[in-house]
Amino acid sequence: MTIPNDATTAGALALPQPYLLFLGDTTIPGYAKTAFGLRDWAGDRCVGEFALPGATVSAGLTPMTPAEAHAKGARSLVIGVANVGGVIPDSWIAGLIAALEAGLDIVSGMHARLGDIAALREAAERLGRRLIDVRKPPAGIPVGSGAKRGGKRLLTVGTDCALGKKYTALAIARGLRARGIDATFRASGQTGIMIAGAGMPMDAVVSDFLSGAAEMLSPDAPADHWDVIEGQGSLFHPAYASVSLGLLHGSQPDVFVVCHEPGRTDILGHPGYALPSIEAVIEQTIAMGKRTNPAIRCGGISLNTGALSPEAAEAEIAAHSERLGLPAADPIRGGPAFERLLDACLS
Fold this sequence. Notes:
It holds the Pfam family DUF1611_N. The protein is α/β, with parallel strands linked by helices. Helices cover 32% and strands 17% of the residues. The strands form three sheets. A six-stranded parallel β-sheet has the order 7-8-6-9-12-13, sandwiched between helices. A five-stranded parallel β-sheet has the order 2-1-3-4-5, with helices on both faces. The chain has a two-stranded antiparallel sheet with strand order 10-11.
């Protein structure tokens, strides 16, 4: 699956491609969502993956060294990890320098700035290579105005992080375009920005300007245009709820879709914090979203059923739809259930 680049949003990028995906020494699949997202939505721009000893997570691409990847045409190594705090540990530095020495630039969506790491900065300067930080908001972001803008907006929200908000937004935007509707995927996180080529790294924006950043991300548009906005975090997340709220207020969605992974019980990386119910997310999103769009409504539910068999997934989707009285679907599986979800979003 691929999506065309859209360089019309804030922070348009021109990244060196193709990519070698770097998995570091990651052992938690949820932290490799950047690699998985690029594999699934920009697979034609990925030549392979590079992992360090101790890694147990794979994106399913051909393992190769940076030198082998460069020989295959790769022009940058993309850090495919989004760990807690967006840090670059010391254990990665030798591998990243090896990529620079092999002729690759480094692209990062981490909070840590590549150029702030002396060993990387010195190696890049010596070798004439670039260090590219994607998680860097543009200058001049205004405070949110709350002013109504033209066009329609759909926001994906979630019961947690890393469970399908980006994939859902990408799939819905693609589904709307397949119906002949003018729709644009608006990326609000580092992986989405790498896929789309543009966007706003919401979790790197100073909190006072979050709503203004969301307004920039989804500007005034014709009445028949849909912006499908990638959600971030969860309104119930003990660490990231502020980003979710700023994005909700600034994007002023007409419709939202709740994303959930059946079987997950605790907030990722925060054991002891139970996942909220889908019902609670719907209620809270409407209550808080009404502040900037009184007409906000829930279009349906997106379920990440990747760990289930087709039969179990179908049963899970049907059960959620019946219980909630809303269309439910796994956008990656598609099918009639997903088409009903699109119908409800447009109704």
